Amino acid sequence: MTTNTEQWTPPTGSQAAALPTGTWWDAVRVPENIGEHALGVLGARSGAVIKDRCNTLYWLIAPGSAATWNLYRVHVLGAVEGVATYLGVPPVDRLTPPGSHWRVPFTRDGYLTDPRLLYKALIRALLSAAGDGRRDGR
């Protein structure tokens, strides 16, 4: 699959845009409590992260880089057999609610997260939630 990760920028204006996964990036969808813990583990190594109106977090990663992941409550959104999933991407300057916004702001030189680091951070977050006795991940 051909990717254009270096040419992509978020929408401008006032509205979020539904953009296809698998072209510029795939997205890793995680519930807020797991995602916030993973953000704490990643720190400055995290790329851009979108938070939607349902408090779900989405990391942007290179297309196809997490196709084999199988983690509880973690969903990889990418093109499957050429069919994309669409993600609501907020305007580049929307950094606060209401609605979808950038939980970690977009920067042209570092918006993709290293999938290996994200995977490790998510494992730690999931183990932490399980250790808290919260089997449902909340």
How do you describe this structure in short?
It is built from two helices and seven strands. With 138 residues, it is α+β, with helices and mostly antiparallel strands. Helix 1 (32-42) crosses helix 2 (115-131).
What does this structure look like?
By secondary structure, the chain is an alpha+beta fold. The chain has one domain (17-131). The chain contains two helices and seven strands. A hairpin with a 4-residue loop joins strand 3 (49-51) and strand 4 (56-61). Helix 1 packs across helix 2 (115-131).
Describe this protein with a few key phrases:
138 residues; alpha+beta; two-stranded antiparallel ribbon; globular
**Treating each run of at least 4 consecutive H or I residues as one helix, how many helices?**
2
Structure summary, number of beta strands: 7
**Ends distance:** 36 Å
For the largest beta sheet, what order do the strands appear in spatially?
5-2-4-3-7
Mean pLDDT rating? 90
> What's the number of structural domains?
1
- Helical coverage, percent range: 10-25%
Radius of gyration: 14 Å
Strand-and-helix sequence, N→C?
A: EEHEEEEEH
Structural class: alpha+beta
Task: State the oligomer.
Answer: single chain
Shape: globular
Major pleated sheet: 5 strands, antiparallel
Uncertain segments are 1-5
| Beta-strand share of residues | 15-25%
